[in-house]
Amino acid sequence: MRKIAAIGGIVFISFILTIVAMFTKLWISWSIGKFSYGIGIVPYHSNSAGWFTAASWMVFISFGLFIPLILVVLFTAYKVHHDGCCHSIRHCFNSICLICSIIAVLEIIAFVLMAVNASRYVKGASISLGSSAYLDLVSAILIIVATVLSGHASHHDCH
User: Fold this and answer.
1) What is the mean pLDDT of residues 61-90?
2) If 0-12 CB within 10 Å is exposed, 13-18 middle and 19+ buried, where does residue 27 land?
3) Which of 8, 60, 122, 151 is 20 to 30 A from 76 (CA-CA)?
4) Do residues 21 and 62 make contact, with C-beta atoms less than 8 angstroms apart?
5) Would you say residue 35 has pLDDT above 70?
6) Which domain holds residue 138?
7) 90-98 CB contacts, 8 Å cutoff, 24+ apart
8) What proportions of the chain, in percent to the nearest 5, are helix, strand and coil?
9) What's in the keyword line of the UniProt record (predicted)?
10) DSSP single-letter state for residue 120
């Protein structure tokens, strides 16, 4: 029961970090003289470069995948609470592991796309990754921890 509670807590924190990263406007920040600017992925910019659009959609998809992930975590917590961690629950933990893996890959690729291409966004300005990109990276790291915990619970705790 402790592992599913830890998985649920980590998934919730990662979900909040993804929401904050998605809706804040500091994915890429730049300054020209004394003026500082930033851009986020929401609202969607249809005229952006291809790498920016791809990174935006990866974050949107990972945000959407959190909904079934949270539902599976809640269902698994309910089943573990009532039936214990038996062999029939193993597929639930494997589902959590799969969805977490997809989310982690999407968020890491989005971060890498932003990090590699940020210097091309505005010519003649001092450009850096903003805090939103790093929040997305922290969310991906936390979701990797949830992936490992759910995989461990599936293979070691569900007999």
Assistant:
1) 90
2) buried
3) 60
4) no
5) yes
6) 2-157
7) 90/154, 90/158, 93/150, 93/151, 93/153, 93/154, 93/158, 94/150, 94/151, 94/154, 96/7, 96/69, 96/72, 96/146, 96/147, 96/150, 97/147, 97/150, 97/151, 97/154
8) 75, 10, 20
9) Membrane, Transmembrane, Transmembrane helix
10) G
Distance CA 116, CA 130 (A): 13
CATH code of 149's domain: 1.20.140.150
Position of tokens 């940020």? 118
Specify whether the CB–CB gap between 66 and 138 falls below 8 A: no
Report the alpha-carbon distance of residue 76 to residue 129 in Å, rounded. Answer: 37
Sign of dihedral through CA atoms 107, 108, 110, 115?
positive
**Helix or strand run (H / E) with residue 126:** strand 126-129
**Tell me, what DSSP letter sits at residue 85?**
S
Place of tokens 């300005």: 125
Contacts of 47 (CB under 8 A, 6+ apart): none
Yes or no: say if 45 and 54 are a contact pair by the CB < 8 Å rule. no
Model-level pTM greater than 0.85? yes
